Amino acid sequence: MNLLQHAMRAAQTAAAPALRRLECALVVGGGGALGSALLGEALVAGRFQRVAAVITAPLASTVRGFDPLPVAALQAGDARGAEVAFVVFERTRHSNGRDDAFLQPVPEDLLPIATALRAGGVRRLVVVVPHAPALLPQALKAGFASEDEGAVAALGFEHLVFLRAAQAGTAAVGGSRLQRFAAWWLGQLVLMVPTREQPVRAVKLAALVVQLARLLPSATPGTRVVPQELLWQASQADAEAVLGAWLAPP
Questions:
Q1: I need a labelling partner for 102 at 20 to 30 A (CA). Which of 71, 110, 128, 235 fits?
Q2: Residue closest to 209 by CA, chosen among 31, 61, 25
Q3: DSSP 208-233
Q4: Burial 23-35 (b: 16+ CB within 10 A, else e)
Q5: What is the pLDDT of residues 71-82, one digit of tens each?
Q6: If we measure between CA atoms, which residue out of 182, 138, 186, 184 comes closest to residue 164?
Q7: Fold of domain 3-247
Q8: pLDDT by residue (tens digit) across 89-132?
Q9: DSSP H/E element including 235
């Protein structure tokens, strides 16, 4: 049984949190370590009535409230009535085939996916954009990283959030000598990164992302960029209080 299956089973018995229950959530990028953790977190009983995930191949599910959504249906504007959608990008992916049924987006897919989600009636969009620690320019920590992100902001989502989440890479076992050296060099850079900019574990990060999304309905509409420092702070303290204070108007 893989990580996602464990998460789905646990979702059926977990206690419901105090935050209000939203109608439906949609996950794009439900495979990989972070994607499967976020999907499992969204499926925890009481958080959402239904959770859809975009798939590229048939997926059998015995979990109540889980709704596999074929990628063709999303492209046609079917978002399963979701109020909030998550788009999860991952820097590395070593699934051994266990999550190949899920659509795994790449950065070039962001604008087409966001356009389809908006056409499908999604009002709130949370995009998780991982980066290597120490390599994200300071100017991008609070702004758009590409023209596509700016174009997504112009689509008219009620709430749009980009999370700049630090994500550790995987050491290169094979590859050329130059590739192995580059992996070693990046590993040394991580040792020089301040603690608050270090990656948050996938399971904890997934919990923070879902909690943030569930706080959005009470926040002022707009586009926001969540820096890694805030994610680290929220992971060390009362996450709801830290995220709620950040969302509150100045």
A1: 235
A2: 25
A3: HHHHHHHHGGGSPSEEEEE-HHHHHH
A4: ebbbbbbbbbbbb
A5: 999 999 999 999
A6: 138
A7: Rossmann fold (3.40.50)
A8: 986 555 556 678 899 998 899 999 999 999 999 999 999 988 54
A9: helix 228-236
